[in-house]
Amino acid sequence: MKKLLLLVLALIFTGIYQLEAQQDSGKIQIGDYTFTEVKIVPHTAVKDQHHSGTCWSFAGTSFLEAEVMRLGGPELNLSEMWSVRNAYEHRADSYVQLHGAFNFGPGGEPHQVMETLAERGMVPDVAYNGLTLGEDLPVHNEMDNVLEAFVKAIVENKNRKLSPVWMQAYNGILDAYLGEMPREFDFEGKTYTPVSFASEVLKINPGDYVEVTSYMNHEYFENFLLKIPDNWDYEMYYNLPMPSLINIIDFAISQGYTVAWAADVSDKFFNHKKGLALVPEKEWDEMSSGERDSVFVVPVKQKEITPEMRQEAYRNYSTTDDHSMHIIGMVKDQDGNTWYKVKNSWAADSNDFGGYFYVSQPYILLRTVALYVSKDVVPQGID
Hints:
Layout: H1 2-13, E1 27-30, E2 33-40, H2 55-70, H3 80-97, H4 111-120, H5 141-156, H6 166-178, E3 185-187, E4 190-192, H7 194-202, E5 209-213, E6 222-225, E7 236-239, H8 243-254, E8 259-263, E9 270-271, E10 276-277, H9 289-294, H10 307-315, E11 323-332, E12 338-343, E13 356-360, H11 361-367, E14 368-374
Parallel strand pairs: 5-7, 10-13
Antiparallel strand pairs: 1-2, 2-11, 3-4, 5-14, 6-7, 8-11, 8-14, 9-10, 11-12, 12-13
């Protein structure tokens, strides 16, 4: 049955690799790399997570905004901090209930935005921007330190019994740093609650989305618990053969969907400033300084990634869950190789490409931790 499903998977996506860049599409020049746009899916503007560890919320919120547009809704600027606030509360509860044996911090995964939508609805950024400190952008270092110290103190308290008000006190800290969560708000001449705004304006069903990955130490075509620190809410991920990662992205973009992407960005060949992420055949440590610079200027042959290579990178920590981003388009280089345009959350002026960069297929295969997608772009017959 699994071989049959693999065959179906291959047939479904056969036509995707035949996509040719449209003659009137834009061209992007990065050194000697020439990228021609195949398809760019409508999405919202690049934002800046600034001094916060909330890339997961920026990626998940950007994905949500694009989904609203894909389904015929308006272009919205939704609140990243709404999901951050919700996650901080849940994370503190888990930390305390597990007596501190839990990963506490600002990190997370894109699916947690949809979980917030399901639990509390959603709000626009104008209703809850989380900027109570007089800053124009998120600055969370102090808040993160205070929150961590607080939950540690709750666990270590000498009373040996939790008070009934510790969460109320914890929320007081969040209110101070992020602002009180609105019960209702006005938006474009109408009053909403977070739940009514989600149902009447967004019209998104959180159950229509799934997180997929590919690892050999679990059965394919089954859900499993992905053991990474930022999956602190113990979400189950659907495991597929490695080629499915590319197939799903290609199919999604070709059909007007986008993809939230959790990946490793500590790889030396990830360079947001220079606009590229790739996997040359030669290892970084084997290159001279000139060779290291040239791979971002002169096209090089890239590795053929195997499932074994991908599994080993996960096992030995060379692939870790560093960052979440938003894949919004597909391009081809001058040799016909497919790359992907990625929207980052490091500000539009963080590089010369408006805050976007371009990632190769080998990098996707090697350094992807997971994809968050609509179930519509996962082949029929695979839940």
